[in-house]
Design goal:
Bound molecules: zinc ion
Helix content: 25-40%
Distance between the termini: 24 Å
Number of strands: 14
Order of helices and strands: EEEEEEEEEEHEHEEEHHHHHHHH
Length: 385
C-alpha cells in the first residue's frame, strides 16, 4: 500500500464487551469479549493493566485457552487493536520518537528503531493508546460495579465511523500516523514505518543501512546510464558513503563508551577522508572497512575519493596534493580530470561493500535478535492471536 507521509491511519475498529460474572462459589470475575466485523485489516494484542489504566505487562495467553498468572494480582486483561492497516503505533520514552510496525511476538522484546532501546509491547505505548487504556480501566470498574449480566461496551466501530469529524472523537479514540520510510526488514521480513530513513528493525534490531545504500547507488548508476556528468555521479557516490558511515559510526560512538581521544578521532569529521576513516574504525571498533576488497579495488577507492576532492574543491584541476596522495602517474599537474564510467561502476560496488563491512562489524558488536528472526522466518504470526 502506498501511504503518503504523516497521514492519519484510522483505528481498525471492533467492539469490546465487559460483563461481571459470579461463579458457584460466589467469586466475582470479569468476562471479556472482543468482536471485529469491519472490512479493513486488523490485529489485536492483549495487555495487562492495573487501575487507573496503567499498562503492566503483555498477556501471552489471551484467546488460546492457557492459564497465565497476571504480573500483578489486581491486573486485568485489556485489548489493544491495530490501525486499519493492521499496524501498531509505538512510542519510545527514551528518545521521544514514534513509529509503526507490523506487530510483535508477545513474549519477545521490541527495539526502538531510532535508539535501539528494548522493551516489551506495553513499554512502547503512545499517549493516545494510554488514554484508551485509562478509559478501558474505567469501563472495567463500571462493569464490576454493575449487576451480573449487565454489559459495558467499548464500541470502536461506532467511533471509527465518525473519525472525519474531530469534534466527535472521544478522548480514548486513537489513530496512528504513517511516517516516511516504510520498509520490510531484510533479515526478518517485518514491516517498519519510521521517520527519516535510517533505522533498526523494530522486531529484530537489524539495521537497514545496506538497503538504503544499495537503493541510492542503483539510482546513481541509473543517472550514469542516462548521461549525467560522471563527476557529479562521483560526488554523489562519495556522499552516499559519507552519510552511511556517519550514521553507523555516530551510533557506535553513542552506544560504546570510548576514551576521549578515540572518540575525538571519530566524531565531527567527514568520513570521505578515506584512509583516516579506515584507520579510525579499525582502531576503535576492530572493523575493517576494506575487508574483502582486493588491492586494485582499494587503490581505486582511495584514488576516486581523492578525485572527488579535486572536483569539489579544486575545480577539477589536478594539483600537487592529488598527485602526491594518489600516486596517480596517469595525470599531469594542472590537467582537468575526466571521469570514466567503468571506474565509477567499480567504485559503486566498492562503496556498497564498504558499508556492508561497517554494518557487519556493527552487528558483531550489537547483534540482532536471532530468535526473533528465526521465528519470523518460520512464518509464525507476530501477534499471539
Ligand atoms: Zn528510542
Ligand atoms: Zn527485522
Amino acid at each position: 500500500m502506498n501511504t503518503p507521509d504523516f497521514r492519519e491511519i484510522a483505528h481498525s475498529g471492533g467492539r469490546v464487551t465487559l460483563s461481571k460474572t459470579r461463579n458457584d462459589q460466589g467469586q466475582i470475575g470479569l468476562n471479556l469479549r472482543f468482536e471485529h466485523a469491519r472490512p479493513n485489516p486488523a490485529s489485536i494484542v492483549a495487555l495487562y493493566a492495573i487501575q487507573p489504566g496503567i499498562p503492566v505487562g503483555t498477556c501471552r495467553s489471551y484467546g488460546i485457552g492457557v492459564a497465565e498468572f497476571p504480573p500483578l494480582p489486581n491486573a486485568f486483561v485489556t485489548i489493544l487493536s491495530s490501525d486499519s492497516e493492521s499496524r501498531f503505533g509505538r512510542f519510545c520514552d527514551a528518545c521521544n520518537h514514534y513509529w509503526r510496525d507490523g506487530g510483535a511476538f508477545v513474549d519477545s522484546q521490541l527495539f526502538c528503531p531510532y535508539c535501539a532501546a528494548r522493551g516489551q509491547i506495553h513499554e512502547f505505548l503512545t499517549q493516545a493508546q494510554r488514554n484508551y487504556l485509562q478509559h478501558y480501566a474505567s469501563c472495567v470498574s463500571e462493569a464490576l460495579q454493575a449487576d451480573v449480566g449487565v454489559s459495558v461496551v467499548i464500541d470502536l466501530d461506532a467511533i471509527a465511523d465518525t473519525i472525519h469529524n474531530e469534534t466527535e472523537r472521544p478522548r480514548f479514540y486513537y489513530a496512528e500516523e504513517s511516517q516516511q520510510n516504510r520498509f520490510t526488514c531484510r533479515a526478518c521480513d517485518s514491516f517498519n514505518d519510521v521517520i527519516g530513513n535510517v533505522a533498526y528493525c523494530s522486531c529484530c534490531g537489524s539495521r537497514n543501512d545496506n538497503d538504503l545504500v544499495r537503493a541510492r547507488v542503483n539510482s546513481i548508476r541509473a543517472d550514469l546510464e542516462r548521461g549525467v556528468d560522471p563527476a557529479t555521479c562521483l560526488r554523489s557516490l562519495v556522499s552516499v558513503f559519507d552519510s552511511a558511515a556517519k550514521h553507523l559510526i555516530d551510533e557506535l560512538v553513542r552506544r560504546i563508551p570510548l576514551r576521549p581521544r578515540v572518540r575525538a578521532s571519530l566524531v565531527n569529521r567527514t568520513y570521505h577522508q578515506l584512509s583516516a576513516t579506515v584507520e579510525a574504525t579499525k582502531k576503535a571498533f576492530d572493523i575493517d572497512l576494506l575487508d574483502a576488497l582486493n588491492e586494485e579495488q582499494q587503490r581505486l577507492c582511495v584514488r576516486m575519493f581523492l578525485r572527488r576532492h579535486v572536483h569539489e574543491h579544486k575545480g577539477g584541476i589536478v594539483d600537487n596534493e592529488y598527485i602526491e596522495k594518489s600516486g596517480d602517474a596517469s595525470v599531469k599537474l594542472r590537467q582537468a580530470l575526466v571521469e570514466d564510467r567503468a571506474s565509477l561502476l567499480q567504485l559503486s560496488e566498492v562503496v556498497v561493500r564498504m558499508v556492508a563491512n561497517l554494518v557487519r562489524g556493527f552487528h558483531d558488536i550489537f547483534p540482532p535478535d536471532a530468535a526473533a528472526i528465526a521465528r519470523r522466518r518460520r512464518g509464525k504470526p507476530p501477534q499471539a492471536q
